[in-house]
Amino acid sequence: MGRRNRAPPRREKPLIRQVWASNFDSEISKFDKCLQFHSILSIDTEFPGFITKSPWGSTEEEIYEDFRFNVNQTKLIQLGITASDNSGQIGGTWEFNFSDFDPQSDAHGPSSVSFLEDNGMDFQKLKKDGIPIRLFTANFLSIIRKHNVFRWVTFHGLYDIGYLIKAMGLIAVLPESMEEFATVVVEGVGIVRDLKHMSRFCEGLEDGKLGLERLGQLLNQKRYGSKHNAGSDSLLTASSHWEMMERFGMDSGICDGFLYGFSNKLESMKMKMKMKVYHHPKMIRFGQIPWSIPLYCYTPYYYIAY
Question: What PANTHER family does the record tag this protein with (predicted)?
């Protein structure tokens, strides 16, 4: 599909705002104000690797179980958030640095600490100057609710979303089933988009078999900051998302509600039950909505026109 007829957003050099305990109050206030006009949030997380890895050929149930175990056993290190609007304008990027993870005592993947250190992670500074996750949680969710934010963009985002819902305080531990997880995400977060999933439907994007760095290169998007740092990765995710939507004119039906690696769209179990309750095999003609059935049952729960 061709490029839409919209003026491209300005590409000034963006500032990645480093957030620590010392400036948390002022930066969360700036973030709050930014969301008045920029309500699409692209996120990336840095975490202590994988304690257990799903072997090749694992079922989706096995992948979810390993994911659940890893997220429940480990602590979030960084959360990068880039706020943008419907025209692709970047409102700001924040990199929240957390103090809770201690590489000397907390669970982590065998080579994860050295990998993150090689990419600029300073664990001593994080422990000394980072934000306690409880402080972040106490402030973040109320801001998201205040601005009714319900559009989130990721790249290969299963773990990003898993850590996000814990950091938001929506849940203490991830639920046992993918269906329960989907319900928490849909009802507590809203619409998620995963660029790795979306790239499977875009000509020239290697059928989704690529990383974020390669995706940015193919879309001619410049990286600011260092890769494998959450703020930089969230910013590249945001600019790549806009470019994909503009270049390929993608439909929300293949964008919204999917996470790479899982075949089913994220749906709330409550909404599934409502649709089952109100479904009738004869109600198939367009426009025929019996007066006794609420209209919302026929309206897509999280439809949004991009």
Answer: CCR4-NOT TRANSCRIPTION COMPLEX SUBUNIT (PTHR10797)
Sequence-distant (≥ 6) Cβ neighbours of residue 271 within 8 angstroms? 186, 301
Name the H helices within 74-172: 112-118, 123-129, 133-146, 158-167
Asked if residues 77 and 101 have their Cβ atoms less than 8 Å apart, the reply is: yes
| Whole-structure pTM value | 0.85
Name the pLDDT band for 288 (thresholds 50, 70, 90).
very low
Q: In what order do the strands lie in the sheet with 191-194?
A: 16-19, 90-97, 78-84, 40-46, 151-154, 191-194
Q: Name which of 46, 252, 54, 249 is nearest 151 in CA terms.
A: 252
Lowest average pLDDT, out of 47-51, 163-167, 242-246, 288-292, goes to 288-292
Neighbouring residues of 124: CB distance < 8 A, sequence distance ≥ 6 = none
CB 204 within 8 A of CB 210: no
φ, ψ for residue 241 (rounded to 5)? -60, -50
Q: Residue 176 has what DSSP assignment?
A: S
Q: What is the pLDDT of residues 248-285, one digit of tens each?
A: 999 999 999 999 999 999 999 765 655 444 444 443 33
Q: Which residue, among 276, 258, 254, 279, has the nearest Cα to 267 in the 3D structure? A: 258
Q: How far apart are the first and last CA of the chain?
A: 15
Residue closest to 119 by CA, chosen among 228, 236, 231: 228
* Strand, helix or coil for residue 79: strand
Rg value, the chain, Cα: 20
Which of 79, 86, 88, 92 lies closest to 33 in space, CA to CA? Answer: 92
Q: List the one residue out of 19, 54, 285, 261 whose CA is nearest residue 129.
A: 19
Yes or no: say if 79 and 230 are a contact pair by the CB < 8 Å rule: yes
